[in-house]
Write a structure and sequence with these properties.
Number of domains: 2
Structural class: alpha+beta
Largest sheet: 6 strands, mixed, barrel
Strand order of the largest sheet: 3-4-8-5-7-6
Number of helices: 13
Order of helices and strands: HHEEHEEEHEEEHEEHEHHHHHHH
Radius of gyration: 33 Å
Distance between the termini: 33 Å
Helix content: 40-55%
Shape: elongated
Length: about 400
């Protein structure tokens, strides 16, 4: 056993005698392990949260106009200034026909605008929806008061962030339009929507307002020119087939497609790739601290060799193998790495948990295998870095001439 190895005991003795110096060197390993594992866990938790949120709309196909031509006054979503600002009535009919009984088709108007609540201005998205379509993919948060999704022309639904930031409740009045505009319609808040987070269906209601589709077209124009059309499929396994049928029905000319079709799968791949790149970059920065630690460990090991030249000479002169001398110093490097990695691993759990909670707002995915795996991985890297740093000092010690080593002065 390694514990009964005399050379391991000599390595432990050396670390104990120079405990303060050894611990200062190990601190670099602690910092490196904490940096790599914490940043890795943060990135993984972000990916898992995004994946979970996007999976909630995995059964939704999002259809948007492929080309938007600017009208004489520029593009305003929902505006009638251009005949190509959205999906028209004929295209909607084709989409509905292609979907058939395999899903639910929901046409959506949208734009961005300013709004005012209790003389405080804000800005967000406005979505025009048929009240009958709202319950099909949106739900209410009744903690703000008993609301309803059956909104009339003078009623709206607001997102969770707006409700929280403005301390709203059902019945509060909201004015939609520029704060400097003389005529801004006032509407009653009929309900507050549940938070949705990152979604793939193109309807980000957390900082948005949902209005009756008739009110929307009266206010912004562009009747029967929808900004997008969502198709909620009954069976997610059929989503590719439905997309193909819709494309074949609407995009009859491959050179000039009318619509673009996407779903959660493509957005999830994009989001995951971006987050993975950011996570890798941050972890690489954290890995720099391990390089600094490696230099520190190398310096400590070289000092240990220099201080124990006579001891090494005696060991070699009584027949100790060079490999055994090397092993003694590699043991010392291993012990330093193990101490640093152990403390770093424990700190990583506490610091990583705090970082994830502060940056993401939830630790629901913290103890998932994909997240927690970064702790032992970072600890292993820390130990390996220490052992590699001790290789040259160990080699130098084992190749000393025993006579010259014994004659040397301390």
């Amino acid at each position: 056993m390694i514990k009964g190895d005399i050379f391991f005991n000599l390595a432990v003795r050396s670390v104990r005698i120079n405990f303060l110096r050894s611990m200062l060197a190990a601190i670099g390993i602690v910092i490196g392990v904490v940096a790599i594992s914490s940043m890795g866990m943060l990135g993984t938790n972000m990916q898992l949260e995004v994946k979970d949120q996007l999976s909630a709309s995995a059964n939704t196909i999002v259809i948007t106009p492929d080309v938007v031509r600017l009208g004489p006054t520029g593009f305003v979503p929902g505006s009638s200034s251009s005949s190509s600002t959205g999906i028209d009535k004929d295209d909607l009919a084709k989409i509905t026909m292609a979907t058939g009984s395999n899903g639910t088709v929901i046409p959506i108007y949208s734009t961005n605008t300013e709004f005012t609540i209790n003389s405080v201005a804000g800005r967000g998205s406005v979505y025009g929806l048929n009240p009958l379509d709202i319950p099909k993919f949106l739900s209410l948060n009744q903690s703000y008061g008993n609301g309803t999704t059956d909104i009339g022309a003078g009623e709206v639904l607001v997102g969770a962030e707006i409700a929280q930031n403005f301390n709203l409740k059902v019945g509060t009045r909201i004015r939609i339009g520029s704060f400097n505009s003389a005529s801004r319609p006032e509407l009653r808040i009929a309900g507050v929507l549940q938070p949705r987070g990152t979604v793939a269906d193109g309807v980000s209601t957390d900082n948005g307002i949902v209005v009756n589709n008739n009110w929307y077209t009266n206010q912004y124009g562009g009747e029967d020119e929808w900004s997008q059309v969502n198709v909620i499929v009954n069976d997610v396994d059929n989503i590719s087939d439905i997309e193909s049928m819709i494309s074949a029905k609407v995009n009859t000319n491959e050179k000039t497609p009318v619509i673009r079709i996407r779903d959660a799968t493509s957005q999830l791949a994009t989001e995951t790739s971006a987050l993975s790149t950011v996570t890798t970059f941050i972890m690489a920065i954290g890995g720099i601290s391990l390089l600094v630690a490696a230099v520190s460990i190398f310096n400590v090991m070289m000092m240990s060799v220099s201080e124990r030249i006579q001891e090494i000479g005696i060991l070699l002169s009584i027949g100790t193998e060079k490999g055994e001398v090397r092993r003694m110093f590699l043991y010392e490097a291993f012990i330093l790495g193990l101490l640093g990695a152990g403390v770093g691993g424990a700190c990583s759990l506490a610091i990583g948990y705090t970082v994830v909670e502060a940056m993401i707002g939830t630790t629901a995915y913290f103890f998932e295998p994909a997240s927690i795996l970064y702790v032992p991985a970072a600890m292993l890297i820390g130990v390996v870095v220490c052992v590699i740093s001790g290789m040259y000092p160990a080699w130098r010690a084992s190749n000393m001439d025993p006579i010259d080593a014994i004659r040397s002065e301390e």
